[in-house]
Amino acid sequence: DAKTTQPNSMESNEEEPVHLPCNHSTISGTDYIHWYRQLPSQGPEYVIHGLTSNVNNRMASLAIAEDRKSSTLILHRATLRDAAVYYCILYTSGTYKYIFGTGTRLKVLA
Amino acid sequence: GAVVSQHPSRVICKSGTSVKIECRSLDFQATTMFWYRQFPKQSLMLMATSNEGSKATYEQGVEKDKFLINHASLTLSTLTVTSAHPEDSSFYICSAQGQEGGANVLTFGAGSRLTVL
């Protein structure tokens, strides 16, 4: 299964942008890049996904490197409610599985 | 948006009993559902992939006779922990695969916290 690497933790000040990096050097051509986040004691929540082009939605933006070996989730203005563990996942169409890595624990400072 | 209901949210049982957890997609049909297990301070571990009308596919190291998965309809999958023991205590989370922008994405249930005494 293709793997992702993320920093264990990051901090951000409230109202400032946050850039959460993810490395996926073994990505294959048909793998989608997904981001989910998990608040304490809850199930994960879908944030965004992409294949090759950058993507924007109401929650965040996803910037994908040209070689697709890395991506960055961008929260434009962090709020206290954005404090969560953010998981970058590769959805492999060959195996049809979503394998979670260790994720990045984001702490937002008031 | 897509909603997945998972029940019960918390269950406490005695060692040796069986516990059933239900996962329902409320406003969409899910051919494929996934079951995860999560220990405190750890990431989600995929247990099995559940496909409607067929046997579940279990990940390596997950006992299929211990964790029975049934996906009898396009909106319901169940996980039964049979003869539960304290080491089975964990947070179990289901997810249903739906479509978003032409791609498959997951919608998760709120999770079920199992405590085996």
Short description:
Chain A is mostly beta strands and 110 residues long. Helix content of chain A is 0%, strand content 48%. In chain A, the strands form two sheets. In chain A, strands 1, 3, 4, 8, 9 and 10 form a six-stranded mixed beta sheet that branches.
**What is the count of DSSP helices of chain A, taking H or I runs of 4+ residues?**
0
- The quaternary state of the protein chains shown equals heterodimer
- Report the order of strands and helices of chain B: EEEEEEEEEEE
Largest interface comes to: A-B, 22 and 25 residues
Radius of gyration of chain B: 14 Å
Radius of gyration of chain A: 13 Å
Strand content of chain B: over 45%
Shape of chain A: globular
**Count of β-strands of chain A:** 10
- Uncertain runs of chain A are none
How far do the termini of chain B sit from each other? 37 Å
Shape of chain B: globular
Mean pLDDT over the residues of chain A: 93
Description:
The complex is a heterodimer of chains A (110) and B (117). Chain A is mainly beta. In chain A, 0% of the residues lie in helices and 48% in strands. Chain A has strands spanning 9-13, 18-23, 32-38, 45-50, 55-56, 61-64, 70-75, 84-92, 97-98, 104-109. In chain A, the strands form two sheets. In chain A, strands 1, 3, 4, 8, 9 and 10 form a six-stranded mixed β-sheet that branches. Chain A has a four-stranded antiparallel β-sheet with strand order 2-7-6-5, with no helix packed on it. Chain A is globular, with a radius of gyration of 13 Å. Chain A starts with 8 loop residues before the first strand and ends with a strand. The model of chain A has no long low-confidence stretch (mean pLDDT 93). Chain B has 117 residues and is mostly beta strands. Helices cover 0% and strands 57% of the residues of chain B. Chain B is globular. The mean pLDDT of chain B is 93. Chain A binds chain B through residues 32, 34, 36, 38, 41-46, 49, 51, 87, 91, 96-103, and chain B through 4, 6, 32, 34, 36, 43-46, 49, 91, 93, 95, 100-101, 103-111, 113.
